[in-house]
Amino acid sequence: MKPIDRQTILITGATDGIGRIAALKLAELKAHVLVHGRNKEKLTKTVNEIKIKSGNENINGLLADFSSLTEVRRLADDVLAKYSKLDVLINNARVGFADERKSKDGFELRFAVNYLAPFLFTSLLLPALKSASPARIVNVSSAGQSSVNFEDVMLEKKFDAVKAYCQSKLALIMFSLDLAEQLKDANITVNSLHPGTYLDTNMVRRSNITPMGKPESGADAEIYLAVSPALEGVTGKYFNVKTEAKADRQAYDKNARNRLKELSAQLVNL
Question: What CATH code is carried by the domain that includes residue 123?
């Protein structure tokens, strides 16, 4: 990997929580940071604050609502038009238990934002990542994982927000494993992580859960996977914070992963 001060790093969901902290810390290391958010005012405020606190003017905002696949495509087009090379993509944006039921496309919201959006966004940004090779993709998952229910992926028959969240997070790990294999000869590593249990973020507090940890530890884990020399060449792994771990067993079922890949491509029209 290039020195951090020569890298362009894109973080989704970076106007709040661990994404925002990670963006600031990477800015302090003088990376060119692309900060994604869905609220224009909050995005502008975040970008300005990161510039001031880090002393780094090379910070740009990216606006898109990841509950809309149309906006995901539009943002990917904008990124490719402006940035020919992308050294690191951190798929950090996510929604939790307390958020609404449906996405703008009518999909179950957690499956849409936590999985389908990064599936589509990453797939569309591969040309920029390949141009920057060696590059890294970091997918922020969770230790809360539940097998994908292929008979009722959107949980229409029996909706449960916790099940929906955990299913979306396992799907992201499954995608990470497939993509790591796909890109093994392109010098692009793909890893996923659980950033920490019930960190003190707005998402956790909105779910009426008592926080158990500080978001800084989650941000540090994201940065570790994104830029640490210790992980050079390491790909297709799942980490519990900074320690390699095992995901739910469905993640290692190639038939299930192939089924998920085919379904995902169909849902996003890829």
Answer: 3.40.50.720
Q: What is the pTM of this model?
A: 0.94
Confidence bin at 116 (pLDDT 50/70/90): very high
CA dihedral 111, 218, 92, 228 (to 10 degrees): -130
Residue closest to 61 by CA, chosen among 81, 40, 76 = 40
165 catalytically annotated: yes
Distance separating alpha carbons of residues 77 and 69, to the nearest angstrom: 12
Give me the catalytic one of 115, 165, 224, 252.
165
Domain that holds residue 134: 4-268
CA distances from 9 to 126, 259, 266 (A): 14, 31, 29
- Per-residue pLDDT at 6: 97
* Structural domains in the chain (count): 1
Question: Of 95, 144, 93, whose CA–CA distance to 120 is shortest?
Answer: 93
Inform me whether the pLDDT recorded for 137 exceeds 70.
yes
